[in-house]
């Protein structure tokens, strides 16, 4: 069993306060977060950004696993996760959608094979499984001769 730990310390009210977030690994060490960083353009991180980072990292690793099971190794996998935070009039703020935008260079991989791996990675990604929100994906295979194949609506 693996247990991963993060801790936070908050000071003050919601709108005026500030917090620090640290992780067991030290990757984050007293990183600042606040409502201003969450809902405005104030410097610092926020929960949604951290969810996006976790989801992008998990999905890229999941895609690497799926590709390896198909006997492929990517030259690179790049994932951008966008977490949509909306103010719903009767429910307050809510994460309503996450979009994963992935591109990868995989020598010898056909577009249909890549699409199959990309979809399987979305389903098997542990963070995707954890989140109860609509998750969409756009995946693009980059070939050695620089032709781009769109993964379609995955």
Task: Supply the key terms.
four-stranded mixed sheet, single chain, disordered C terminus, three-stranded antiparallel sheet, 154 residues
Following the backbone from N to C, one meets helices and strands in this order, namely EEEHHEEHHEE
The helix/strand class is alpha+beta
Low-confidence runs of at least 5 consecutive residues: 146-154
Largest sheet: 4 strands, mixed
Overall pLDDT level:
91
Question: What assembly state would you assign to the polypeptide chains in this entry?
Answer: single chain
Number of helical stretches of at least 4 residues: 4
Choose one word for the global shape: elongated
What is the rounded distance between the termini?
Answer: 32 Å
Percentage of helical residues? 25-40%
In terms of DSSP E residues, the strand content is: 35-45%
Strand order of the largest sheet: 4-5-6-7
Tell me the total number of β-strands: 7
């Amino acid at each position: 069993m693996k247990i991963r730990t993060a801790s936070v310390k908050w000071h003050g009210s919601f709108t005026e306060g500030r917090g620090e977030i640290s992780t067991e690994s030290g990757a984050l060490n007293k990183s600042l977060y606040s409502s201003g960083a969450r809902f405005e353009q104030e410097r610092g991180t926020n929960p949604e950004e951290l969810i996006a980072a976790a989801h992008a990292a998990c999905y890229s690793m999941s895609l690497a696993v799926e590709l390896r099971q198909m006997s492929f190794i990517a030259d690179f996998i790049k994932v951008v996760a966008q977490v949509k935070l909306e103010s719903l009039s009767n429910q307050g703020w809510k994460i309503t959608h996450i979009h994963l935008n992935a591109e990868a260079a995989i020598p010898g991989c056909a577009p249909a094979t890549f699409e199959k791996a990309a979809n399987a990675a979305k389903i098997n990604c542990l963070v995707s499984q954890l989140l109860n929100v609509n998750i969409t994906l756009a995946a693009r295979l980059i070939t050695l001769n620089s032709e781009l194949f769109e993964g379609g609506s995955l």
